[in-house]
Specification:
It is a single chain. The chain folds into 4 domains: about 120-270, Calcium-transporting ATPase, cytoplasmic transduction domain A; about 360-370 and about 865-1100, no CATH class; about 375-415 and about 680-865, HAD superfamily/HAD-like (Rossmann fold); about 415-440 and about 475-500 and about 520-680, Calcium-transporting ATPase, cytoplasmic domain N, CATH 3.40.1110.10. The chain is an alpha+beta fold and about 1200 residues long. β35, α28 and β36 (about 850) form a beta-alpha-beta unit. The chain contains 39 helices and 36 strands. Strands 16, 17, 18, 19, 22, 23, 24, 25, 26, 27, 28 and 29 form a 12-stranded mixed β-sheet that branches. It is found in: Early endosome; Endoplasmic reticulum; Golgi apparatus, trans-Golgi network; Membrane. Keywords: ATP-binding, Endoplasmic reticulum, Endosome, Golgi apparatus, Lipid transport, Magnesium, Membrane, Metal-binding, Nucleotide-binding, Translocase, Transmembrane, Transmembrane helix, Transport. It holds the Pfam family Cation_ATPase.
Length: about 1200
């Protein structure tokens, strides 16, 4: 029982051996000669808490906070000894804070549980007892045979048993795992490939022995032992047999697979990082400030205790006649009395630590997070998706980001390739309005009009003839041949799979306009191949499909069959792929395509130089380029090639080296046909967003699992890399020493070319070597690069890179953006995780802190919401410490006038309600609604983001300013009241003297008005809510005090404040003293604001106070005033300029036609009414 409880709490994971034995369909041997192994169920868990650990785990996390732990100690002290205040004054607020926080965090985790339940409750089909049973995903057990249909996601890690194909193969996409959208082929063992029905699978007797779960997506080792006719057949299993959870079945009707890893042991789940409590930089600063204030508190308590005993060295003060000691007090230990008095002073001054700060911050974060979801500028109409907030604890962290780590596929791009241009025989063509237009005018084209190839849409392809290619009569035959070979090469040199939704009439001759065109669905090994095959189909050379060794192509309506002899697969070293085919008339061709750096050196004919120029032009446009070439083979040449390929592919030793040599021998003496240019369509405004992030001082890193060429191309097209940037590479490193030497060379190049901007490209293998032994050197190179691109990254490698940046000496704030399950680990590792609700599932969105529909929304999320949240909470934190210093310092000063007898200056009701009622609402509303500058200005001027970076608003200098301000105001409250009123006995209307409670109430009244008006001075954006809570708080205090002191309440044991407030307000001198002290306190603050704004303005203050190109006649971004002011209005305007305040009731904007006014902005942030009729 205890072991089970420990496992449920996560302290005692079950024991595991090095390997696992899986009996397919859970058919265990009848003789019982096996050791049963226990496997976890198939539930996915992204939540932090369970029913069992919520209370202890949540309490542990909350009491990590200094203030909560401190008030727990104070509460226990009040329970143990006799203190000046009741234990309720500390215990009740602590209980309230803990409860509210627990409810908030429990609610957020409940939402995560609901999301998990949706995944775990998805319907699946499992083979059990000879039939197909429908069950839920969470009920899949290791050993179950699962059926997955086309376009469904695999619910667990499965070993493929069979498919609807004769060879038992299937095709999957792993975009949500590694970011690659290409089609991957998986195969099974021959003995199970024939078991394509449930009845046949029921006869299978087999065992799988494989390694225990590990996070590497590309590694799997095991074997299958199949029992047939009393004989055991052993077949090896590798990654090509494993279907990963999160991948999607494509171009295959259905498959059957046996579950080998389930639930949190699947490779997808192992690439998640364990969820940890993220804490913002502001919260860490709060804890630091609390420790400083705790030191101040202990110092005050020690000073008071020492002074008390120093004072009591005189006998007349040790035991005055009016306060005789008991016998027990006289005989008690002096050390115990000293400790007791110290603890009593600690309790008396404990309000200097603001426990209500945490509950206010929690409410501000929770309520403020709704503004993100309500912001219609973050709403994506096409997908009907609004921004989601999964955790509100990090709102202010959005304003502190220094590094952005982003995925590529589906995050920066739409994950859709589009054919744009091509070069054929030295002539460049591009698609314009559905036609392939040549840039070279022909002799028969009048007025220099461009000639074109017919390029109609796939859904409306007309009957094409060879005259479509004609450009001039002289070289018609040559051009027809070149174009024909070019598009044949595009249609045949690939590994595209095809799904025929409608096949009627495909091979019946030319398509007629009256006939419905076939719906061809291509699945490609790379998105480029799919775009090229579709482009060839639109030009009239349509790839119909392949059957075994035959490829079918329809050329201008005529069906041709080509025999596929060999495929020379793509690899990153050669950077090209080739096919050898035999045409209908028996001739043999080698068609090759690849990067220009690998194709052009192998060419001996064709328009090489012209094509090279065109490829460079395509690349400058950010297009992905491929060169196409061919070679016609004689019978003797083919015989040699066939023999060399056979020998290389059947070699038992050095097979890869022999294949590389064979490919090198074959792919030579090529004739260049041309080049293609494909665009991976970027999401809207990606380039502008990345540029804005740079202007804001944020470094952008792209982390992708895609190959280098693709990643670099997209980085160039999205503006992550600039054309003028010097691109450095750290790729294909094989050893530590080689990697270190390369890093040193890169560091020297950066030093030598310090004026030039540098970009770094690093692949996953080289990164592993760099992080193993050369972290510091690698980080030095990265810090001196303007942009970094990491390609071929495994999911956990992405998290390691972010971890490396996080723990660097600067300790910058990091943000990760991704859309797939492969991005979850980096999203959870970064300080702030952003999930893109894209096409690759919802794993990233579910495990992120915030989820948005498009990358472009990141700019407003950071520059507007992040800026506002940070300014609001930074002011909230410092204001709380300020008002509590103002509150408790007079209590400390009062002890000098009461012989340190621990007498309280304020009534206990005022002690309890000061933070809860009297001063709580103005700062809460400020922290929700404050806009110190217009949202449009923040978004259009990303440089303003630098003003708040590196936690500048909560710097030690600002903290000391607020603290010193609080102490100075407290001295004015206390000594101003003491000298103005304390010794004058004639100021009360009835002639009575000022008593203890009268004096304390006067100090409290001055203090309350001052701290409330101070909040008003900090407010720039006024709404009716601000006016209501600011002035309403002061009015509420007066009304409450009149009722509290004007009535004898029967439930109160003693009522020291009876009629005190009435007598205090009956004196005109009291009113004068209140006004005088409030003005003196705030005058100092106003003088400082004037000085700072005039001599040392920040960029934000300049944006507030400076007219924008003299066309917006505004005092600041939210305050505009009409012309023709009176002298008094000018004075008022100057005062508004000084304190940076505005009232939306007087907002009137005057815009020029040239000003960038966003008329479609529907942000919920803009709460004030703005007259834009003159825009």
């Amino acid at each position: 029982m205890w072991r089970w409880v420990r496992q449920q709490l996560g302290f005692d994971p079950p024991h595991q051996s090095d390997t696992r034995t899986i009996y397919i369909a859970n058919r265990f041997p009848l003789n019982g000669l096996y050791t049963p192994q226990k496997f976890i169920d198939n539930r996915i868990i992204s939540s932090k808490y369970t029913v069992w650990n919520f209370v202890p785990k949540n309490l542990f996390e909350q009491f990590r906070r200094v203030a909560n732990f401190y008030f727990l100690i104070i509460f226990l002290v009040q329970l143990m000894i006799d203190t000046p205040t009741s234990p309720i004054t500390s215990g009740l607020p602590l209980f309230f804070v803990i409860t509210v926080t627990a409810i908030k965090q429990g609610y957020e985790d409940w939402l995560r549980h609901n999301s998990d339940n949706e995944v775990n409750g998805a319907p699946v089909y499992v083979v059990r007892s000879g039939g197909l049973v429908k069950t839920r995903s969470k009920n899949i057990r290791v050993g179950d045979i699962v059926r997955v249909a086309k376009d469904e996601i695999f619910p667990a890690d499965l070993v493929l048993l069979s498919s609807d194909r004769p060879d038992g193969s299937c095709h999957v996409t792993t975009a949500s795992l590694d970011g690659e959208t290409n089609l991957k082929t998986h195969v099974t063992v021959p003995e199970t490939a024939v078991l394509r029905t449930v009845a046949k699978l029921d006869t299978l007797v087999a065992v799988i022995e494989c390694q225990q779960p590990e996070a590497d997506l590309y590694r799997f080792m095991g074997r299958m032992i199949i029992t047939q006719q009393m004989e055991e057949i052993v077949r090896p299993l590798g990654p090509e047999s494993l279907l990963l959870r999160g991948a999607r079945l494509k171009n295959t009707k259905e498959i059957f697979g046996v579950a080998v890893y389930t639930g949190m042991e699947t490779k997808m789940a192992l690439n998640y990082k364990s969820k940890s409590q993220k804490r913002s930089a502001v919260e860490k600063s709060m804890n630091t400030f609390l420790i400083i204030y705790l030191i101040i508190l202990i110092s005050e308590a020690i000073i008071s205790t020492i002074l008390k005993y120093t004072w009591q060295t005189e006998e007349k003060w040790d035991e005055p006649w009016y306060n005789q000691k008991t016998e027990h007090q006289r005989n008690s230990s002096k050390i115990l009395r000293f400790i007791s008095d110290f603890l009593a002073f600690l309790v008396l001054y404990n309000f200097i630590i603001p426990i209500s700060l945490y509950v206010t911050v929690e409410m501000q974060k929770f309520l403020g997070s709704f503004f993100i979801g309500w912001d219609l500028d973050l709403y994506h109409e096409e997908s009907d998706q609004k921004a989601l907030v999964n955790t509100s604890d990090l709102n202010e962290e959005l304003g502190q980001v220094e590094y952005v780590f982003t995925d590529k596929t589906g995050t920066l791009t739409e994950n859709e390739m589009q054919f744009r241009e091509c070069s054929i025989n030295g002539i460049k063509y591009q698609e314009i309005n559905g036609r392939l237009v040549s840039e070279r005018p022909t002799p028969d084209s009048s007025d220099g009009n461009l000639s074109y190839l017919s390029f109609s849409h796939l859904n409306n392809l007309p009957h094409l003839t060879s005259t479509s290619f004609r450009t001039s009569p002289e070289n018609e035959t040559e051009l027809i041949k070149e174009h024909d070979l070019f598009f044949k090469a595009v249609s045949l040199c690939h590994t595209v799979q095809i799904s025929n939704v409608q096949t009627d009439g495909i091979g019946d001759g030319p398509w007629q306009a009256s006939l419905a065109p076939p719906q061809l669905e291509y699945y490609a090994s790379s998105p480029d191949e799919k775009a090229l095959v579709e482009a060839a189909a639109r030009i009239g050379i349509v790839f119909i499909g392949n059957s075994e060794e035959t490829m079918e192509v329809k050329i201008l309506g005529k069906l041709e069959r080509y025999r596929l002899l060999h495929i020379l697969e793509f690899d990153s070293d050669r950077r090209r792929m080739s096919v050898i085919v035999q045409g209908p008339s028996g001739e043999k061709f080698l068609f090759a395509k690849g990067a220009e750096s690998s194709i052009l050196p192998a060419c001996i004919g064709g328009e090489i130089e012209k094509t090279r120029i065109h490829v460079d032009e395509f690349a400058l446009k950010g297009l992905r380029t491929l060169c196409i070439a061919y070679r016609q083979l004689t019978s003797k040449e083919y015989e040699v090639i066939d023999r060399r390929l056979f020998e290389a592919r059947t070699a038992l030793q050095q097979r890869e080296e022999k294949l590389a040599n064979a490919f090198q021998f074959i792919e030579k003496d090529l004739i260049l046909l041309g080049a293609t240019a494909v665009e991976d369509r970027l999401q809207d405004k990606v380039r502008e967003t990345i540029e804005a992030l740079r202007m804001a001082g944020i470094k952008v890193w792209v982390l992708t699992g895609d190959k280098r060429e693709t990643a670099v191309s997209v980085s160039l097209s999205c503006g992550h890399f600039h054309r003028t940037m010097n691109i450095l590479e750290l790729i294909n490193q094989k050893s530590d020493s080689e990697c270190a030497e390369q890093l040193r060379q890169l560091a020297r190049r950066i030093t030598d070319d310090h004026v030039i901007q540098h970009g770094l490209v690093v692949d996953g293998t080289s990164l592993s070597l760099a992080l193993r032994e050369h972290e510091k050197l690698f980080m030095d190179v990265c810090r001196n690069c303007s942009a970094v691109l990491c390609c071929r990254m495994a999911p956990l490698q992405k998290a390691k890179v972010i971890r490396l940046i996080k723990i660097s000496p600067e300790k910058p704030i990091t943000l990760a953006v991704g859309d797939g399950a492969n991005d979850v680990s980096m999203i959870q590792e970064a300080h702030v995780g952003i999930g893109i609700m894209g096409k690759e599932g919802r794993q990233a969105a579910r495990n992120s802190d915030y989820a948005i529909a498009r990358f472009k929304f990141l700019s407003k999320l950071l520059f507007v919401h992040g800026h506002f949240y940070y300014i609001r909470i930074a002011t909230l934190v410092q204001y709380f410490f300020y008002k509590n210093v103002c509150f408790i310092t007079p209590q400390f000063l009062y002890q000098f006038y009461c012989l340190f007898s621990q007498q309280t200056l304020y009534d206990s009701v005022y002690l309890t309600l000061y933070n809860i009622c009297f001063t709580s609402l103005p700062i809460l509303i400020y922290s929700l609604l404050e806009q110190h500058i217009d949202p449009h200005v923040l978004q259009n001027k990303p440089t303003l983001y630098r003003d708040i970076s590196k936690n500048r608003q909560l710097s030690i200098a600002n903290f000391l300013y607020w603290t010193i301000l609080g102490f100075s105001h407290a001295f004015i409250f206390f000594y101003g009241s003491y000298f103005l009123m304390g010794k004058d006995i004639s100021l009360l209307g009835n002639g009575q003297m000022f008593g203890n409670w009268t004096f304390g109430t006067l100090v409290f009244t001055v203090m309350l008005i001052t701290v409330t008006v101070k909040m008003a001075l900090e407010t720039h954006f006024w709404t009716w809510i601000n006016h209501f809570v600011t002035w309403g708080s002061i009015i509420f205090y007066f009304v409450f005090s009149l009722f509290y002191g004007g009535i004898l309440w029967p439930f109160l044991g003693s009522q020291d404040m009876y009629f005190v407030f009435f007598q205090l307000l009956s004196s005109g001198s009291v009113w004068f003293a209140i006004i005088l002290m409030v003005v003196i306190c705030l005058f100092l603050d106003i003088v400082k604001k004037v000085f700072d704004r005039h001599f040392h303005p920040t960029n934000t203050e300049k944006a507030q106070l400076t007219e924008t190109n003299s066309s917006i006649k505004c005092l600041d971004s939210m305050c505009c005033f009409s012309e023709g002011e009176t002298a008094c209005a000018s004075v008022g305007r100057m005062l508004e300029r000084v304190i940076g305040r505005c009232s939306p009731a007087h907002v009137s904007r005057l815009w020029s036609a040239s000003d960038p006014f966003n008329t479609n902005d529907r942000s919920i942030l803009t709460l004030s009414t703005m007259d834009s009729s003159t825009c």
